[in-house]
Amino acid sequence: MADQLVLSLDATSPGIYRQRGVSSLQSLFRSHFPELFTRYGADFAKRLGKFRLERISKAVGRFLECGDYTKGIARIQCTNPGCRVEYFRPFSCKVFHLCPSCSQKRTLLFGEYMNEQLLLRLPHRQFVFTIPKVLRVFFRHDPRLHGEISRLVYGLVRDFATAAAGKRIRTAAVVVFQSSGEFLR
């Protein structure tokens, strides 16, 4: 019971602390990333490119500590004088694209920001463009191409909207690249 009193608050029984579980993705990284890190240069760098392993290693380290109560917590308390319920929340890693929890939170916050502050209360349209598989390798190794293709696609959409309206109209675009589709298969 003594080790339970220092880790995390169990919502079902106030005052009892239990450590949050480790995700299977964290277990996978904890087990296999050190070997990948040591073998990458010899086995994969030539084929996949020389990534910044030091930066990736730091991101993986932060991801492995995500949600760990022993790495720091925030105490959250209800401000209602009649309630005053409180709980502890572990710090998050904020590693976008690697940590599913933090990545999803950041995506939702960005969507809320766009809806509440950035976009006007006008009709919006979503367009999805795919890059042929044979060209994807160029985008993987040259990120400047993302900006060029964004300008090209926006120009096409703008010209289409102008032609459909029959007059010059003002348009804007939010462009997002999603590259995990090929990895999800």
Which key phrases capture this entry?
single chain; about 180 residues; mainly alpha; 2 domains; two-stranded antiparallel sheet; 7 helices; about 50% helix; flat
Quick structural overview:
The protein has helices at residues 24-43, 45-48, 53-64, 100-118, 133-141, 144-165, 181-184, and strands spanning 73-77, 86-90.
With strands numbered from the N-terminus, the spatial order across the biggest sheet is: 1-2
Q: What characterizes the major β-sheet?
A: 2 strands, antiparallel
Number of domains: 2
The number of helical segments is 7
Report the mean per-residue pLDDT as an integer. 79
Q: Structural class of the helices, strands and pairings?
A: mainly alpha
Given as residue ranges, the uncertain stretches (5+ residues, pLDDT < 50) are 1-13, 15-19
Radius of gyration, in Å, reads 23 Å
Q: What oligomerization state is this entry in? A: single chain
- Number of beta strands: 2
Helix content: 40-55%
Distance, first to last CA: 44 Å
- Which shape, going by the Cα principal axes? flat
Q: Which series of helices and strands comes N to C?
A: HHHEEHHHH
Q: Proportion of β residues?
A: 5-15%
